[in-house]
Structure formats: C-alpha cells, structure tokens
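Section 5.1 Outputs to date
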Amino acid sequence: MSDAPDGEIVEETDDFIHVRFRDPDDFDAIRTPDWAENAASDVAEGAEVRTGKLKDEDDWLVESVLIPAGTDDEEAERRAEEIVEKIES
C-alpha cells in the first residue's frame, strides 16, 4: 500500500482538476513523465501525473495528478488516489 497522503483539489482549470498529494516545495525538480501518464490512462483517460525528486534524496514521488475537467470533484480525487496507489505501490 502507498504511503502517499490523501489528495486535495487545489485548482480547477478549463482542462484539468489538479489534485495535489505533496507540497511542491519539498522537491528539487518536478516532471510529467510519459511512463506515468501511460499508467494513469488505465484509470482516467487523459490524466497526467507530476512526479518530483525529493530535496537531498534520490527518491521520486507523485506530487500531483491532473484529472480531465468535467469530472465530479469526489470522482477526481478518487481516481487520482487510485493512480497514485497504482504508481507507488
């Protein structure tokens, strides 16, 4: 089971609902890797995953998940958490 905290919606744009799992200030670098997007698409087509490299460590963790707009907020959080569980477990 993943040690990721629960996701929280922090922003909604025309394209995405941004569900944050970790503070972006905890990372040296944040990227949106293709492999994570491919894994996320099994749960929510069109979703994107932002991963970050923790400061002073080699670990990369999910910082946030972007769920396509038009998804109910509760459903967006549920899908984002499912994506993080899939990637980090």
